[in-house]
Amino acid sequence: MKSICVIEDEESLSDLIKMNLELEGYQVETITHGTEAFLQAADMDQFVLVILDVMLPEVSGLTICKEIRKYSKVPVLFLSAKGTTQDRIAGLKLGANDYLPKPFDLEELLLRVQILIEGVENQQEQLNNVQIGEFEIDFSSYTVRNPKTKFETELSKREMELLRLFFMKQGLVVSREEILDELWGDDQYPTSRTIDNYILTFRKIFEKDPKNPVHFHSIRGVGYKFLL
Question: Under CATH, to which class is 158-226 assigned?
């Protein structure tokens, strides 16, 4: 059963949201205090969605969202009595996927929940069945294989995360800064040489001529571009 975390300090509203989500077939966990939610931010990957109130006691929803993004890309739907454009922009900049001002219609909330969850599932399904040339990539097992030559190798978690980022940004220039933010977050940044080494590894595996890459291009002074 798909699990959703509802972080909302107004208990009557929290109970109402929980009841309606459970009627839709979701399992729901509720948190009413900002500090508790902040301390559980690293564990939010267990949920398919986080519904997060902006104005929480102790620790704000904005701070909690920022903390969640250090560990997880789980979809976050903000709820807030503040519905100005500036407030929505602030939430989205911190990594929220959607923003629903209060008061809201329950039917609209359920629809937004469905859209967010289906969007992630579709993206994951697409990324679980991808190829680069003759190579098949299995993100679930960190494996790259070539059925024709029987070649098979296992990549590290970080290498797979970088590959996933390239697929999501296919055809676009991905800056070094974006790679660092997406893969390392607030952790200690690696040297620029570390990213270069990942690209060299990809070229050795996927490129027929690593010195003249077709898929993994370096954009001098900016970053990289991935093409299928």
Answer: mainly alpha
